[in-house]
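Sanity check

After download, print the first record. It should look like this:
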Amino acid sequence: MEQQKHICKNCNNEFVGKYCNLCGEKVFTIQDKKVVHLLEEVFHFVTHFEGSFLTTIKTVFTNPGKFSLDYCNGIRKKYFKPVSLFLFFVVLYLLFPRFQGLNMRLDTYATEQYGFTWIAVPLIKEKMKSKNIDYKQLAVKYDSKSASISKIGLFLIIPLAASILLLLFYRQYYYFFDHAIISLELSSIYIGLHFLFIPFVSFVAESINHDWVRFFYDDNYWLAIFTLLIDLIIVINAFKTFYKQNWFWTSLKAIIYIIGFGEVVIYLYRLVVLYFTIFIS
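Expected structure tokens:
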């Protein structure tokens, strides 16, 4: 018996079966308009999302590097996509910006403590002069626009971090793609720890006792040391799992990566956000 032929409504390809062999579009039938079908799609989305998402989160935070290793080796079905994972944490961070985090106010750039005055002050003065406005007016404009610029700028973090890994592990002949995948994982963990988990703990602490929130201030060195140790443990374990070097070289490269990420990648990211936000303000 000859199978019925269909014309794909998406690409006009002629095919047999339920799905177009060229673009994958499903044959539309009256059954697809039933409420039951809609509920089936909702159920499929929820179960698939929950399963892959929870598996990914569990793997990323309990066994750093395993997610990237599996993904680069072709084990992908059970996981969230690395880019989707990164964007998920970015969106959460942007929705709950309790700390300044990656997106800093203009006042912060103009403060000596953060090391941006060498470029921020001349840019600010030049902008004030060209627009004939005072600092307060510029700060308001800057702070209103920096959030959108910082979202776009976040995509710079991955290639910059991957470039550091490429230099650190150049003798192992990994593809840049592999370095980018583990960069996505490590950056997701970084955002999750520094800009979601710690702010949440600070919120809870402040709710219990207002004075406890002082522990989470930027000038608290104990918090800085604690988070640095956590970062180091995570990166060492991720590198050991993914790159499979001995503990000495893994630990040394993890330290170099953390310094490079914090002092170079994040610094360059903030410079880009400053420059382009000032430019459009």
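If your output differs, re-run the checksum step. Summary of this record's structure: The longest helix spans residues 247-280.
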